[in-house]
Design goal:
The complex is a heterodimer of chains A (575) and B (82). Chain A is an alpha/beta fold. Chain A folds into 3 domains: 22-144, Enzyme I, Chain A, domain 2; 245-263 and 474-575, Phosphoenolpyruvate-binding domains (TIM Barrel), CATH 3.20.20.60; 267-430, TIM Barrel. Chain A is 50% helix and 13% strand. Chain A has an 8-stranded mixed sheet. In chain A, strands 11-12-13-14-15-16-17-18 form an 8-stranded parallel beta barrel, surrounded by 5 helices. A two-stranded antiparallel sheet of chain A has the order 4-5. In chain A, helix 1 (35-62) runs antiparallel to helix 3 (82-93), helix 20 crosses helix 21 (527-538) and helix 20 crosses helix 22 (542-553). Chain A starts with a strand and ends with a helix. The model of chain A has no long low-confidence stretch (mean pLDDT 91). In chain B, strands 2-1-3 form a 3-stranded antiparallel sheet. Chain B is an alpha+beta fold and 82 residues long. The radius of gyration of chain B is 14 Å and the shape is globular. Chain B has a single domain, classed as HPr-like (Histidine-containing Protein, Chain: A, 2-Layer Sandwich), CATH 3.30.1340.10. In chain B, strand 1 and strand 2 (25-26) form a beta hairpin. Classes of the chains: A alpha/beta (575), B alpha+beta (82). The interface between A and B is large, with 47 and 30 residues.
Chain lengths: 575, 82
C-alpha cells in the first residue's frame, strides 16, 4: 500500500518497522514545595540533558556532520536556557506537577516560535519540545528503547536528538507522518545519509491496518510503501541503484564536455542562487551558470541593497567562474507572491498572474536599472561580458522595455564616469505561453532563450504549482508543454540563437532526454543533478533522442510521455 | 553563537528586533532570542548593563559582523527552480 509524502532525504531503504517509545515508567516528584525546591529538581536534570546534547553534537562533529552538530548544540543551549527553567520553576511552584510544568513551559516557547511567520524558526518549535522530553526522561531516570535490529523508524515526528542518539547503522530509513523537509529530523537524515520521507499523512494508520512488519521508504520520490511486495522492493531498489550508478558514471565524465553517445554536444550549466553555491557548482565542472537567481540580494531585508553591495556580490560570482564559464544573471523576479517590504507593493488576488518581475519596471524602473548598473560594473571589474536575462517576458513590448532599461543603465554609468561593460548579452526567460507562441519574433530581438519549464507548465495547464491537489498537472513532460518547447526551439533556430532550459525538467534524466531530442542546446540545473545528466546523455544517441521526442510530442498525456522516456532511460542503464 | 557570546558576559544584555517590533528579550536566553523572529537584514538594538557593558557591546558587535559563524541555514528553502 502506497502512502505519499514529501522527500526528506534521498535514497531507498526497506526494513522492519521500529516505533520509538520510552522504556520503563520511572518516578518523578508529584509536587514541589516552593521555587527553591523546584530549582533543585530541574537544575541537575537540565544540566544532565544539556551535557547529553553536547555529547551528541560532538559525536556528529566527529562524523563530519558539522551543520547537523549545530542543531544539537543549539538544543544544549535550550536545555540550559534560563527562560525555560524560570518558567518551569514558576509553574511548578504554583502547584503543577514538575513534569507538567516543564512540558507547559516548553509548549509555551514552542507555540511562540510556531507563530513566527518564518518557516525556519517555526520548524524549530519541535526542537524545544524534544529538549523538554529529554529533561523529563532524565528526571524519570528512563531512556529511549533502541531498535534491536536495523529498522525503519515510523513515527508522527522523530525528535532530532533521538535521531542523533540512535547508534549508526540501526536506522535504515525514516518515515514520518508529520514534519517538513525543513525540520531538523530531515536535515539530520540528509546529514547522516539515511533515506527519509516526511509529511506522509495516514502512514501510521496504514501500518496498523496492514499489521505491517516492513515498510519501504523512497526518499527520492517522497513515498512510503507499507508491507511492500518483493516485486515492489526490487523495482524501487533497482531505480535507486540505477540513479547511484548514473551519478558515479557521470563523475567519471566530468573532465570532458557533455555529449550524446554519437558526439552531439549539449552544454551543461549550473543553476545557483547566491555566492554560497559557488563551490558546490564549480565542484561538478559546469560549462557556466545558466541561471543565477538574484532574489537572494533583495529578499528578507528591510531596505533595497545598494548598488555597490550588488556589485560586490556579482563580482564575486563572475570572478569565480571566469571568462571561460559565462554566468547568466537573471534580473530580480520579485513582486507577486515574493513580497518585498521596502517596495510597498499592493497585495494581489492572483500573484502568479500579477505585476511582477519585468512588469514592475513599467511603473518603477529604478530597481532593475540599479541592478543592471551593478551587473555592468561588476562585469567590467571581472573582465567578462555580462549575460543578463529578463524574467516573465510576455510580449515584444516587454523586450523593448528590457532594452531601454539596459540602455538607461549604460548611459547613466557613462555619464557618471564609472567603469562599465561595453554592452550586455541579452536573453529572456520563456515561461509564459504568449512568449512561446511569439518565439519567432522575440528571437530576432534577443541573443538567447532560457525556458523555465516550471512556470511554463503552470501557465500552459492553468494549474497553480503550489496547489498539491493539482500535482498531476504539474509534470512538465505533458505533451502540451513539450509542443510549446518545440515551437520555441523552432523560433530560435530560425533566428540562429541558442535555447537553454533552466526549469526542473532539465535536471530530471528522463526530462533531459526529451528536451535534447527536441533540439534544446543547453541544460541548466541544480549542481547536484549535473553528474547524472552527463551519464544519461552519454548513453543515448541523438537519433534515439529525436525519436523519443517525436513519440513524446504525440503522447496522450504526461504519464505516457514519461513512460516513453523512462523506457529509454532504463535501456541506457542496461547498456 | 550570539547567545553564547552574550552568555559569557557579566552584564545583563537585552535585545530588541527593530524591524519586526515587539518586546525586548534576554540575550542570554536562546529561546527568547529566537522568539524575536530576527532574520537576515533585520535591524536589532542591543543594550548591556553591568561592569563589563562596553566590552559586551564590542564583542557582540564583532560576533554579528563576523556573520555569527554561520553559513545561513543549509535548509533555507531554495526558490522553485526558476
Amino acid at each position: 500500500m502506497l502512502v505519499t509524502g514529501l522527500p526528506g532525504a534521498p535514497g531507498v531503504a526497506v526494513g522492519p518497522v521500529w516505533r520509538f517509545h520510552v522504556a520503563g515508567a520511572g518516578n518523578a516528584p508529584a509536587r514541589v514545595a516552593d521555587e527553591a525546591d523546584a530549582r533543585t529538581v530541574f537544575e541537575p536534570a537540565a544540566r544532565e540533558a544539556a551535557s547529553q546534547l553536547e555529547a551528541l553534537g560532538a559525536g556528529l562533529r566527529g562524523r563530519g556532520a558539522e551543520s547537523e552538530a549545530e542543531i544539537l548544540e543549539a538544543q544544549a543551549l535550550m536545555a540550559g536556557d534560563p527562560a525555560l527553567l524560570d518558567e518551569a520553576v514558576r509553574l511548578a511552584a504554583a502547584g503543577s506537577p514538575p513534569l507538567d510544568a516543564l512540558r507547559a513551559a516548553a509548549e509555551g516557547f514552542a507555540a511562540s516560535l510556531a507563530r513566527l511567520d518564518d518557516p525556519l524558526l517555526a520548524a524549530r518549535a519541535v526542537d524545544v519540545l524534544d529538549v523538554a522530553d529529554r529533561i523529563a526522561r532524565v528526571l524519570l531516570g528512563v531512556s529511549i528503547e533502541q531498535p534491536d535490529r536495523p529498522s525503519i523508524a515510523v513515527a508522527d515526528d522523530l525528535p532530532p536528538s533521538v535521531t542523533a542518539e540512535l547508534p549508526a547503522g540501526s536506522l535504515l530509513g525514516i518515515a514520518l507522518e508529520a514534519s517538513t523537509p525543513l525540520a531538523h529530523a530531515a536535515i539530520l537524515a540528509r546529514g547522516l545519509g539515511i533515506p527519509a520521507v516526511v509529511a506522509a499523512r495516514g502512514l501510521r494508520a496504514a501500518v496498523d491496518q496492514a499489521e505491517a512488519s516492513a515498510v519501504l521508504v523512497d526518499g527520492d520520490r517522497g513515498e512510503v510503501i507499507v508491507a511492500p511486495t518483493d516485486a515492489e522492493c526490487a523495482d524501487r531498489m533497482d531505480r535507486a541503484t540505477a540513479a547511484t550508478d548514473r551519478r558515479a558514471r557521470g563523475v567519471a565524465l566530468r573532465d570532458r564536455p557533455a555529449a550524446t553517445a554519437d558526439g552531439m554536444r549539449v552544454r551543461l550549466l549550473a543553476n545557483i542562487g547566491s555566492p554560497r553555491d559557488i563551490a558546490r557548482a564549480l565542484a561538478v565542472q559546469p560549462e557556466g551558470v545558466g541561471l543565477l537567481r538574484t532574489e537572494f540580494l533583495f529578499m528578507e531585508r528591510s531596505r533595497e541593497p545598494t548598488e555597490s553591495e550588488q556589485v560586490a556580490a556579482y563580482r564575486e560570482i563572475l570572478e569565480a567562474f571566469g571568462s571561460e564559464r559565462p554566468v547568466v544573471i537573471r534580473l530580480a523576479d520579485i513582486g507577486g507572491d515574493k513580497q518585498i517590504p521596502y517596495l510597498d507593493l499592493p497585495a494581489e488576488a492572483n500573484p502568479f498572474l500579477g505585476v511582477r518581475a519585468i512588469r514592475l519596471a513599467y511603473r518603477s524602473p529604478d530597481l532593475l536599472v540599479r541592478q543592471l548598473r551593478a551587473i555592468s560594473r561588476a562585469a567590467a571589474a571581472a573582465g567578462v561580458t555580462p549575460h543578463v536575462m529578463a524574467p516573465m517576458v510576455a510580449t515584444l513590448a516587454d523586450v523593448a522595455l528590457f532594452e531601454s532599461l539596459c540602455a538607461t543603465a549604460q548611459d547613466g554609468l557613462a555619464a557618471d564616469g564609472l567603469p562599465h561593460a561595453e554592452g550586455f548579452i541579452r536573453g529572456i526567460m520563456v515561461e509564459i505561453p504568449s512568449a512561446a507562441l511569439m518565439a519567432p519574433e522575440l528571437a530576432r530581438r534577443v541573443e538567447f532563450f532560457s525556458i523555465g519549464t516550471n512556470d511554463l507548465t503552470q501557465y500552459v495547464l492553468a494549474a497553480d504549482r503550489t496547489n498539491a491537489a493539482l500535482a498531476e498537472l504539474q509534470d512538465a513532460l505533458h505533451p502540451a508543454v513539450l509542443r510549446a518547447v518545440a515551437s520555441v526551439v523552432a523560433g530560435a533556430r530560425a533566428a540562429g540563437i541558442p535555447v537553454a532550459v533552466c526549469g526542473e525538467l532539465a535536471g530530471d534524466p528522463a526530462g533531459a532526454l526529451v528536451l535534447v531530442g527536441l533540439g534544446v542546446d543547453e541544460l541548466s540545473a541544480d549542481p547536484n543533478s549535473l553528474d547524472p545528466l552527463r551519464a544519461t546523455l552519454a548513453s543515448a544517441t541523438s537519433r534515439e533522442l529525436e525519436q523519443l521526442a517525436d513519440a513524446a510530442l504525440q503522447a496522450v498525456d504526461a504519464a505516457s510521455a514519461r513512460r516513453l522516456a523512462e523506457t529509454l532511460l532504463e535501456r541506457t542503464v542496461a547498456a | 553563537m550570539f547567545v553564547r557570546t552574550a552568555g559569557a558576559q557579566r552584564s545583563k544584555v537585552r535585545v530588541r528586533n527593530l524591524t519586526r517590533g515587539g518586546a525586548e528579550a534576554d540575550a542570554k536566553s536562546l529561546l527568547s532570542v529566537l522568539g524575536l523572529g530576527v532574520s537576515c537584514g533585520h535591524r536589532i538594538a542591543i543594550q548591556a548593563e553591568g561592569d563589563d557593558e562596553e566590552a559586551t557591546i564590542v564583542s557582540l558587535r564583532a560576533a554579528i559582523e563576523s556573520g555569527l559563524g554561520e553559513p545561513l541555514d543549509p535548509a533555507r528553502p531554495v526558490e522553485a527552480a526558476e
